[in-house]
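Support request from a user on the community tier.

User writes: "When I paste my structure tokens into the form, the page sometimes reloads and wipes my input. The last time it worked, I copied everything first. Here is what I submitted, just in case something in the input itself triggers the reload:"
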């Protein structure tokens, strides 16, 4: 019987052991045994597919990967210790000295640091593409361009990249298209359906959903994932069995959680729309969003993140955060608990003020990761804090 991706996220499971367990056990082991010298030789030679060492593969990691491949509609995958190790593994597997990367200008702060600071060490060049001028992207592609990298929606500006258009552009120039799908999750958006070669996530965020563990994952074309696997098994960014086990269990409730996050985010946007303390509010499925039509085309719903710009700037931002009574102040997102953050002074503090403004980060920008608490409680806390800002 053909099952939907959401059902597969619940039902995919490591083969049962002779103990007949219902829930997948934790394979907390560094290595795996062989019944004979010949079996061990053949496995190391690649003639047999057996587990060898948990830096290479582990049943818990494979279950997590299989579920994510089902959700994203991809052939293969590799799980990593964090979202940043997934991004770095993608870059370092395919970019060599003399190569060139095209990236959207609005990316996570640590990704920006890798591109602008560390690429120089390996003589890798890059160009940042203007999200507001897609017609200029093709002119940035050079003969040595090997990869296009984008987030959509972006962090923290919630800008949207047209994946269908970008997939065609990447294929035209025969470059690898990598999409960070962390903010949308495969519940709301599947970049591979639009031509993405690789899709990655910080599993720490929505996939875990409760702020418990670090993790990352890359899924996509089997041939490209094999190259990432060869790089990663030798450089060591593999996920721990415990974290993979926990993340696999988390995927069983991902659809249910994401729908509640979206319900609450939509209700919050409605409550904040036109608030006198705000210059603007940004949400992918709000008609005022400049990429609203594109978001509606490629996403099922708007997601669980909302941003707004306070009229009083930096000082109002501080006052707002200090006045919150329920929402958590932390650097994470995608949690069951609602979280408020100030990107200019935290996640994107590495950017200059000019760079921040160029990607839509104003001094008064607040990012809300909308949780699954009662929406009335979420609204009440934010509205009372706005009055004190």
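"...and here is what came back when it finally went through:"
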């Amino acid at each position: 019987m053909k099952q939907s991706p959401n059902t597969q996220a619940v039902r995919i499971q490591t083969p049962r052991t002779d103990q007949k367990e219902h829930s997948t056990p934790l394979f907390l082991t560094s290595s795996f045994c062989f019944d004979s010298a010949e079996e061990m030789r053949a496995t190391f030679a690649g003639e047999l597919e057996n587990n060898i060492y948990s830096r290479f593969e582990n049943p818990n990691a494979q279950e997590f990967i299989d579920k994510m491949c089902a959700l994203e509609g991809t052939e293969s995958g590799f799980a990593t210790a964090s979202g940043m190790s997934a991004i770095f593994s993608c870059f370092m597997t395919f970019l060599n000295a003399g190569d060139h990367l095209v990236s959207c200008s609005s990316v996570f702060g640590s990704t920006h640091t890798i591109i602008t600071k560390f690429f120089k060490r390996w003589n890798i060049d890059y160009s940042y593409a203007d999200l507001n001028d897609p017609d200029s992207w093709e002119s940035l592609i050079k003969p040595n361009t090997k990869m296009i990298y984008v987030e959509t929606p972006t962090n923290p500006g919630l800008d949207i990249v047209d994946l269908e258009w970008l997939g065609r552009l990447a294929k035209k120039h025969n470059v690898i298209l990598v999409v960070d799908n962390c903010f949308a999750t495969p519940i709301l958006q599947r970049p591979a359906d639009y031509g993405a070669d690789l899709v990655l996530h910080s599993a720490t965020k929505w996939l875990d959903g409760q702020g418990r563990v670090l993790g990352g994952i890359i899924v996509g074309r089997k041939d490209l994932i094999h190259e990432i696997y060869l790089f990663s098994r030798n450089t060591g960014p593999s996920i721990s069995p415990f974290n993979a086990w926990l993340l696999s269990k988390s995927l069983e409730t991902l659809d249910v959680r994401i729908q509640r996050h979206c319900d609450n985010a939509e209700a919050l946007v409605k409550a904040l729309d036109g608030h006198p303390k705000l210059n603007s509010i940004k949400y992918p499925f709000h008609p005022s969003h400049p990429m609203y039509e594109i978001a509606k085309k490629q996403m099922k719903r708007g997601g669980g993140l909302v941003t707004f710009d306070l009229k009083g700037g930096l000082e109002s931002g501080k006052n707002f955060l200090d006045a919150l009574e329920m929402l958590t102040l932390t650097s994470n997102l995608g949690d069951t608990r609602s979280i408020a953050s100030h990107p200019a002074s935290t996640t994107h503090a590495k950017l200059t003020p000019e760079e921040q403004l160029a990607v839509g980060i104003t001094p008064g920008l607040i990012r809300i990761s909308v949780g699954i608490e009662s929406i009335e409680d979420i609204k009440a806390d934010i509205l009372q804090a706005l009055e004190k800002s």
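Agent notes: The reload is a front-end session timeout and is unrelated to the input. The first strand starts at residue 76 and ends at 80. The chain has a mean pLDDT of 96. Escalated to web team.
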